[in-house]
Amino acid sequence: MNRREALSRVAVLVGGSIVGAEFFLSGCKPGDKAAAGLPLSAEDMAYLDEIAETILPATSTPGAKDAKVGAFMNTMVTDCYEEKDQKIFLEGMGKLNAACSKMHGHDFMKATPEHRKELLTALDKEAKDYQKSKKPEDPAHYFSLMKQLTLLGFFTSEVGATKALRYIAVPGKYEGCIPYKKGDKAWAT
Amino acid sequence: MPSDTTSTVRLNTKSVSQNTYDAIVVGSGISGGWAAKELCEKGLKTLVLERGRKVDHITDYPTTNMAPWELLHRGWNTKQKKEEQHIQIRGFCNESNSHFFVNDLDHPYVQSKPYDWIRGYHVGGRSLMWGRQCYRWSDLDFEANAKDGHGVDWPIRYKDIAPWYSYVEKFVGISGSKEGMAQLPDGDFLPPMEMNCLEKHVASGIQSGFNDGRRMIIGRVANLTRGWNGRGPCQFRNMCDRGCPFGGYFSSNSATLPVAMNTGNLTLRPHSIVMEVIYDKEKKKAKGVRIIDELTKQTEEYFAKIIFLNASTLGSTSILLNSISDVFPNGMGNASDQLGRNLMDHHYHVGAGGKYDGFKDQYTYGRRPNGIYVPRFRNLDEKTQRKDYVRGFGYQGGASRGRVSDDGGIGAEFKEGLTEAGDWGFWLGSWGEQLPHPENKVTLHKEKKDKWGLAQLDISCEFRENEMAMRQDMMNSAAEMLEKGGIKDIYTFNDDKAYPGLCIHEMGTARMGHDPKTSVLNKWNQLHEVKNVFNTDGACMTSSACQNPSVTYMALTARACDFAVGELKKGNL
Fold it and tell me: Which residue, A186, B17, B274, B481, could crosslink B403 as a Cys pair with Cβ 3.0–4.6 Å?
């Protein structure tokens, strides 16, 4: 019985959440440890960097890791998030890792880029469906929070704004109609 | 706090003379800055008392050159900020400008009804963070009260203020287009900013789509489209509310206070909370003001021949309410019982938006700190008269082309998609007139004090039937106009949590009027009852119109200063 099977069997047996089962079977994983509190450890931030990099990878332009999005998420969750969203985010770090174990049989950090992308694509769809159907007072999906912070953190970072997008600190003038062709980079602000 | 005329016995003659000026201006915001400039230029030794800290042009704009990534939270408010500035953040207070908004925990007030009091206590006040939109009023506005019976008649008409609009516009530098519309008189403008292609398209759709003369024009804004009086030009960074190192827009700090300082006649005392105006019963005039130092909490008195209250609508009225004596048991100049009444704001957070399918090959360059404006088109005449409400509203907004938004996806292709320009969108928000109502009022709370021992304000103000009926039309008309402009996927909004105050256009509470029995100030912004005390900030307003009010405060201030100095020279003050 591989761990993935063991996990799903435990989940069925106890009727509990995969997160609990994951914790029970494999002890402290990066995501689980994060649930202990904020600010996050360097290890946690490295884990978030990998999640962010999977969402926005380096291509011909830098990616989320270059923009230190993991550390950015730590700052934002610690300083700006309300307690209930902090909890969702921290538990979500564990849930994401557990979902990876379930899908691929090992931790997110050990997963190949292809496996990571497959997992996050599934979570993205799950989160999108959930956000669409949820009532306003229902809690947010953890992956929606992670993705939102990844996009915000990357596109407002120096590499994101100046390399992936275009940024001019002092435009000096305004022109209301200039030519644009598909593929031209958008303005960062 | 009783205003005892014997208090000067506590001071020796030397300190009285040291503390005596020709004029005192309370407040250094948009109207206080103008009072300082005008009085100093006319040769009066002028003391400006500012309740908050000093903010020097450029050197005290800590975030002015910060790129997005240099803001630790990229503009978001932290939990700490959400607590300390829980009211300020309901407006546009954020990480990049929050040092210009008050700490709400230090400056409490009582909300008998929900009221968002957005404030900046520092030199320059809200002239640093203001929206900079400048629109003249017309006789449609100055005659409104007399015609429909709400409030009292304005003691002035457009012809009285028109030359003063020109006077201040020539100094401020306001970019805009001349349109020849009676309800929105043209001014002395700098070259207008450009509309983008979608704005031009929607403007033309509106012009041809309605037969009531309504128009969409470029906003009139106090940003300099060319160098002006040693300031600017605007660099199109659109970071104005952080303070501008180019002096690209008008503020007290960049414009009026430096001119006042250069005369050699200005003394600026920050950290000076004016508690009350001191009344001289024998001379039937004010002789000065009593302050409490914000930091040391020591009180001190300053004396002058004329006093201009420019402490903001609620600030100035609060000082007058607190200026109690046996002559004025209910506040200075309040025989009419109108002091504190008829508090107004503009009501907004209502309108519509949508997107546009075309212009995929068009984009913009630069960040224009301005949008479009739709001047009032309701209740102008019989043809445009509404049965469901009186007065009217205007629109601000504009078109922009944002980035592609997250519609699901992960990875390289998703990322590349997000780096491109997305759809064009159009947003149209409405600003509506609030009628003066005597029960929309501010009083001094009987028990609650602030940390300087001054009575807290108790604000009881609400939008009423006329505003509510108007809002339906504000929302629906926005959608109709966007439709005529070819906008698709139109959504509408009408936020019932946008409380009075949120528009930061608070006005009234010491209204101008002909009759001392029904108004606080006369046509020269003098207290009817105390001729050497003037008020020319938002408190003086007799109605609210629907245009952004600051340029009207500026014009009234310059006009009142001219009058006051004339009266002083004639020996009447």
Answer: A186
Give A-chain residues touching B72 at CB under 8 angstroms. Answer: 75, 79
Chain B residues in contact with A81 by the CB 8 A cut-off are 79
Give Cβ neighbours of residue B288 (< 8 Å, ≥ 6 apart): B19, B20, B24, B277, B278, B301, B302, B303, B304, B307
Domain with A122, as residue range(s), is 3-164
CA B436 from centroid of its chain's CA atoms: 17
Estimate to the nearest angstrom the gap between the alpha carbon of B49 and the chain centroid: 19
- Residue A154 sits at φ, ψ, to 5 deg, of -70, -50
Hey, is the C-beta of B366 within 8 angstroms of any chain A C-beta? yes
Asked, for residue A178, whether it belongs to a domain, the answer is: no
Cβ atoms B314, B326 nearer than 8 A: no
Question: Domain tally for chain A?
Answer: 1
Instruction: Tell me the per-residue pLDDT of B461-515, one tens digit each, with 9 for 90 and over.
Output: 999 999 999 999 999 999 999 999 999 999 999 998 899 999 999 999 999 999 9
Tell me if A15 is assigned to some domain: yes
Amino acid at B452: W
**Chain A neighbours among B 91-150 (CB < 8 Å)?**
none
Contact B410 A124 (CB under 8 A): yes
pLDDT one-digit tens code per residue, B174-218? 999 999 999 999 999 999 999 999 999 999 999 999 999 999 999
Question: Cis (ω within 30 of 0) for the bond into B2?
Answer: no
